[in-house]
Amino acid sequence: MATPYEHFHQTIDVKERTNDLMFVSRFNKEVLIGANMGFEQLNDGVWAKTYLLVDENTMEAALVDPVYDYMDSYIETLEQQKLTLRYAIASHTHADHITACFNLRDITGCEYVMWHETECLGISKHVTDQEKIMLGAHPITFHFAPGHTSDSMLIHFDNYLMTGDFLFTGEGGVGRDDLPGGSMKVHWDSLQVLNRFEGAELVCTGHDPPETKMQSLQWNRENNFVLKMTSFEEYEQWQSENNIKLGSVSKIKTAIPANLSREIPDVIPWLQ
User: Fold this and answer.
1) What would the pLDDT profile of 213-257 be if each residue is shown by its tens digit?
2) d(CA 14, CA 8)
3) Range of 254's domain?
4) Domains in the chain, number
5) pLDDT of 23 above 90
6) Over the chain, what HEC string results?
7) Considering only CA atoms, which of 130, 156, 163 is closest in space to residue 144?
8) Is 85 left (phi over 0), alpha (psi -120 to 50) or beta?
9) Which of 30, 166, 211, 255 is the most exposed place for a label (fewest CB within 10 A)?
10) Predicted TM-score (pTM) of this structure
């Protein structure tokens, strides 16, 4: 299990910016205070990212946005590290993959956590805006951030900010708003929730190219073009053009019904 400091050096290029060097100093100080927690990005080499959160005193764990395709690897990781899965958390209703949350609940008895007004079935723990749940001694805080979907939320753990499809890194901008439950205007307005954070938090996205280095929120404020936009009209135009460029979501007809109903279909086309 990587400590926060070790993981930071694995994923951030600290040589590029003076601000990032200041961030290292602050981050290192926090590690000394909270060295009994762990954080790890899973699903290496793919676009869909899952995060493992650990309290190393109690050996309790949480998985954020686990993907059904990689269920076996999650179970193996938990067993190898002798972890007890406390929470399986979905940042929103996914359209591009089937969540592993409800299967993990069935197998491990963990809580399946989502926003309290989600339409997904089988949720055992509903959360509200700025609600905290405890992973051992460490709080996990939720921030309602709709737009990409109506049930999107940010997940804040120590110095990590898991953003799902609400915010991507740098040139990635943000997630598309033309899928079921999405709204450009709501997403644009919801960007204000990022003002709750100082900026040193490490932005851990739900998607980005595999080689992408995670960056701080402040870095994204300065380098993510969406966060530098000044009007909804500008944002709306970019979203419309980007949605055309992205085209249809190939997995949506399988993923959304499965995630809403908590039922794995007999045939999953991309796993055949």
Assistant:
1) 889 999 999 999 999 999 999 999 999 999 899 888 889 999 999
2) 9
3) 4-266
4) 1
5) no
6) CCCHHHHHHHHCCCCCCHHHHHHHHHHHHHHHHCCCEEEEEECCCCCECEEEEEECCCCEEEEECCEHHHHHHHHHHHHHCCCEEEEEECCCCCCCCCECHHHHHHHHCCEEEEECCCCCCCCCEEECCCCEEEECCEEEEEEECCCCCCCCEEEEECCEEEEECCCCCHHHCCCCCCCCCCCHHHHHHHHHHHHHCCCCCEEEECECCCCCCCCEHHHHHHHCHHHHCCCHHHHHHHHHHHHHHHCCCCCHHHHHHHHHHCCCCCCCHHHC
7) 130
8) beta
9) 211
10) 0.85
Residue 272, domain member (yes or no): no
247 in any annotated domain: yes
pLDDT digits (tens, 9 = 90+) for 70-113: 999 999 999 999 999 999 999 999 988 999 999 999 999 999 99
pLDDT at 176 over 50: yes
Q: Residue 271 falls within a domain, yes or no? A: no
75: number of CA atoms within 13 Å, CB side? 14
| Residues 43/68, Cβ–Cβ less than 8 Å | no
Instruction: Give the CATH number, domain containing residue 55.
Output: 3.60.15.10
Q: In what order do the strands lie in the sheet with 153-157?
A: 132-135, 138-144, 153-157, 160-164, 202-205
- Orientation angle between helical segments 71-80 and 101-108, nearest 10 degrees: 40
Contact present, 20 and 217 (Cβ < 8 Å)? no
